[in-house]
Amino acid sequence: MQSNNKIKSDEILLLELQLGSEEAFISIYDRYHRMMYGMAYRYLKIDYLAEDAVQDVMMRIWEKRMTLEIETSFKSYIFTSLRNNILNQIRSKSFQLEKIYEVSQYEHIFEDDLLEQIEKEDFLVKFNNAIESLPEQKKRICKLKLTEKYSNQEIAEMMNISIPTVKTHYTQAIKMLRAILVKLKYVIALIVLNQ
User: Over the chain, what is the mean pLDDT?
Assistant: First the structure.
């Protein structure tokens, strides 16, 4: 019966899975396990973590089989679930930034934007941490300018300081952030900061 499942479409297997078919689940597992593991290993770089990520996704699919609602293709759903699992593992295991940078050197597998998404999320965390490490006035000016999008004049009025003082603090803060971010190997952040 396994050979029949190989020619079944994902949609048919999904319908059978929603009816509780273990054979459909096994077919889905057989069809996607190797690709999922390859993707997970490429980003996590540790065998058991990659296998755990695949098992977690497959376990959730089995547990939610009766109520599973998929609005995209099943393949997209399963790899999006895996991507989210990988991102959660990276966050929860506090992987070093170096590991993520190393991962960025590898070729993309199924989702071209996975690495970009990981880097963006990790960069935002590191960038916000860098801002939090600034002296209080520079931190406040950066937050008002970058996050709240206030102009120099509006910031000067809010903080009761001159516009040149705002510019000076902001310029010094940007230099400090650049130094921090370069240490973290995020030279690309310089482009974002200068926009």
Answer: 79
